[in-house]
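Dear colleagues,

I hope this message finds you well. In preparation for our joint manuscript, I am sending the VanZ family protein (Streptomyces halobius) sequence together with its predicted structure, so that both groups work from identical material. I would be grateful if you could confirm receipt.
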Amino acid sequence: MQRHGPGGTAALRLRATGLLLLVAHLLIVGWLMLRPRTVLWVPAPNLKPLASISAELARGPWEAVQSLTGPVLLLAPLGVLLPMSAGRLYASPVTSMARTVFAGAMIALAIELLQTGVPGQVPDVDTVLLNTLGVAVAHLAVVPGCRSRLRRRYEHLRGATPKIPRVEVAPQADVLSGSRTYL
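The corresponding structure tokens are as follows:
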């Protein structure tokens, strides 16, 4: 019989699928962000928070949307894949959000630090902020609803908790009476 609870084979398949998709996504992101580019001119690295975001907003709203959505969407799937690969169905929403956003920020920071050694790639602190924002928004948009749906599904599959009729106290027996000998 196949179990469908939080520790069953369906949950293990969900975790394995999440882990596989997480690794595939990180490999694609690594390939996109850490391959050398041949460019004639490379801007200076941005280490001042919100400097490139404000520069993009000064160019106009349409240009800002076009250039800022890429970093937001790049790591956004991690907001869903990290909790999915962890497989915690009954996790606290605040703890899950904090754990996921912290892991996403550390992955974004690691990518930016690795870019310092790649020719043509320029590290930007605002990219870390935008990547982390994407992880947080994706987590808030998808994970709480999916977890509640899965919890309802598992409770439905388990069925109602069986009711045990009240157990009465057994009549007192004379266990240690002097009439019996045990030797």
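For the figure legend, we might mention the following. The two ends are 49 Å apart (CA to CA). The mean pLDDT is 86.

With kind regards,
E.M.
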